[in-house]
Specification:
4-stranded antiparallel beta sheet, 108 residues, single chain, alpha+beta
């Protein structure tokens, strides 16, 4: 007769193995429809995705590529220069550009 602990261990292991196989098939439910995760690499903002902006008084934080960043922080070789309600400004070398908040075209 098997012990309950062994049965639970086997069940948890099986679930973990099944979950790792399914993870590649999962789609981000927060991604706007039609958003292509592969961007044109010729654009300066190709590797940068702004998914959230938080502004409270003088404090400004943006979630960029899954990381919380502030003005002066660097990501993908670009330095955050400004954080506004619907976009984040960057500088990379002599180039400046801004990246719109995902879905900001539909926000009001």
């Amino acid at each position: 007769m098997r012990s309950p602990g062994l049965a639970i261990l086997l069940l948890v292991t099986g679930m973990a193995l099944a979950a790792t196989g399914m993870a590649a098939e999962l789609r981000d439910p927060t991604r706007p429809g039609g958003a292509d995760p592969v961007a044109d690499s010729s654009e300066p903002s190709a590797a940068i995705r702004v998914s959230a902006v938080f502004i409270s008084g003088e404090r400004r934080v943006a979630v960029i590529n899954g990381q919380r960043l502030r003005i002066g922080d660097t990501i993908a070789g670009a330095t955050v220069r400004s954080i506004d309600r619907n976009s984040v400004g960057f500088a990379r070398g002599d180039t400046t550009f801004s990246v719109a908040l995902l879905g900001s075209a539909t926000r009001q």
